[in-house]
Amino acid sequence: FQTPKWLAYNSFSTYEEALLNIPPTRSSVLDSGLRVATEDTGSKTATVGLWMYTGPRFETNENNGITHFLEHMAFKGTKKRSQTDLELEVENLGAQLNAYTTRELSVLYAKCLSQDVPKLVEILSDIVQNNKFGDPEIEKEREVILHKIEAETNLRDVVFDHLHSVAFQGTPLGKTILGPTQNIKSLNKQDFLDYINLHYKAPRIVFAGAGGIEHDTMVLLAEEHFKGLTWELDVPVPEMNFCRFTGSDVRVRDDDIPLAHIAIAFEGVGWSDPDRIPLMVASTLLGSWDRTHGGGVHNACRLAQDFVFNLQCELMHICTSVSELDVERAKNALRSKLLLNLEGTTPISDDIGKQIIYNGRRIPFHELDAKIEAVNADILRDTCYRHLYDRCPAIAGVGPVEQLPDYNRIRSGMYWLRV
């Protein structure tokens, strides 16, 4: 374990001083529109990658699933390197290549020794700009994805796919990440090239890094290796259309599954909304529980005993009668959670990429901490009252869900008839 530089700077500094000692995030915008953002932590390792503003939210009904398919094709060879050569080159450097897809983001990143950053940047640029999309590789990954869709072993992902499908029905956010089977069977090389030509544009991409790296060096590397990423579009820019939230439910009963998997959701706010911080405090106050956590009944709220009833009671309590002591406890827990989530170069670079995409800048932690500190019981109650009290939830259930209360019964529990 390596002590972060901002913490080792002065072991006796106050909490506020320690926050101010966290290395700043530097950012630049190239002529092409590509944004470069870095944090130099002084460590011997680094994480660099590309955060691309594309995903199922920008897909059509005909190509839904293509972003995830492209993730599978990322490491299958380029015009300069075969798949074997690519794997050997990365392995010889002791580096790691990874990728993931969300409904709004496609991310490709590498973790390596700081001295190997220039080589990994060249490899990443080759993958993004020169993928060969060979027919044998496409067919192989097609079978992998189809098997993944058929197996559906991760019930949490299944539940959240159903939840999105009803909460955002009829909108792009209702699409799944994997896509429907018929699309996966029909997507081809030309579809990939057309999608890349439309979405892989410099203004929609953040080149982020964290670790033992210098910002000016990263800017030079970006200018050298990402010349193929331009801002020019042959068609109109893909729009970020509003996705309405619909209170509704879906239940997939399967008594062969040992446990019921249930999700209840309410319409939230965007990254830059001022209500986001109070809602994060409320989420922390609500807490979480798992049978593997151990501990007593005060380890979290009473969700495990009677899920729906106690969830609604806890939500109504937060909306109407939460105390200052509870809020202070939640604020401290949220601070700890956010700081612990930034241990290591990969979480830091991921946070940089997402914040630049959604906020246009990375909010310094001392500024975020001040916003958390400003939340009090009145603000928390007012915020939760606006977003949770007497609001229609979206509900998804998979498994033995026969005893899940009727939707109208759950909806009626979202307000209290009290004087």
From TrEMBL:
GO process annotations (BP): protein processing involved in protein targeting to mitochondrion
Entry keyword set: Hydrolase, Metal-binding, Metalloprotease, Mitochondrion, Protease, Zinc
Cofactor requirement: Zn(2+)
Primary site of residence: mitochondrion
Residue ranges of domain Peptidase M16 C-terminal in the record: 186-289
GO terms of molecular function: metal ion binding; metalloendopeptidase activity
Gene Ontology, cellular component aspect: mitochondrion
Pfam family, one: Peptidase_M16
Compartments it resides in: Mitochondrion
Family listed: Belongs to the peptidase M16 family.
Protein name: Innexin inx2
Source organism: Armadillidium nasatum
Source lineage: Eukaryota, Metazoa, Ecdysozoa, Arthropoda, Crustacea
